[in-house]
Design brief:
The chain has 175 residues and is α+β, with helices and mostly antiparallel strands. The chain has two domains: 2-37, no CATH class; 45-173, 2-Layer Sandwich (Double Stranded RNA Binding Domain), CATH 3.30.160. 25% of the residues lie in helices and 51% in strands. It has helices spanning 83-102, 150-173, and strands at residues 2-10, 13-22, 29-37, 45-53, 58-66, 72-80, 106-118, 121-132, 135-144.
């Protein structure tokens, strides 16, 4: 008998699919089970992003996040008032807001971001470097930005890239 497991994350929900296959001589049997584990609500949540253009063509950004239990996190950044730079400013402010939660043990750094037109949608994609224990990992996050500002898109893409890692990191750190 063989056993394969797959965990799929989608919009804050966790689905696990286990496929078991038995191949006894002359017998073919396959079963699949789909179990849904509800979101525990332990994710860091996006609250708001405020972008204020300045007279010299720059953009000042403030991002607010909330922890489970209601504590608020704030981050600030600034950059040129251009589309890709607005994504970066939102992402940098979000990374700054996350820093106190990570307690200096997990370090996140913005590597890059893009605004893409694909599939009749505007997408924001960011890449982060996560460093833990001397090893660096690449984290990728994406979000549809059709109905939102690019600063907010950058912030949400960072949370998409980092939230699962942060959840795991925090649950290990609390043991």
């Amino acid at each position: 008998m063989g056993s394969e497991g797959l965990v799929v994350f989608s919009k804050g929900q966790r689905y696990s699919l286990r496929l078991m296959v038995s191949c006894a001589p002359g017998e073919s049997h396959m079963t699949a089970s789909n179990s849904r584990t509800p979101n525990t609500g332990d994710r860091i949540r996006f609250q708001m992003a405020n972008a204020t253009p300045t007279a010299d063509g720059r953009c000042m950004v403030e991002v607010q996040l909330s922890l489970p239990g209601g504590a608020q996190l704030f981050g600030n950044s600034e950059g040129p008032d251009l589309p890709d730079a607005r994504v970066r400013a939102g992402a940098d402010a979000t990374v700054e807001a996350l820093d106190p939660v990570l307690r200096g043990r997990l370090h996140l750094r913005y590597k890059g971001g893009r605004v893409l037109e694909a599939f009749d949608s505007t997408l924001v994609i960011v890449s982060l470097a996560g460093t833990l224990g001397g090893r660096e990992y690449t984290l990728i996050g994406a979000v549809s930005a059709d109905d939102r500002d690019l600063v907010e898109g950058g912030a949400l893409a960072v949370l998409d890239a980092a939230n699962r890692v942060i959840e795991r990191f925090l649950s290990i750190g609390e043991r």
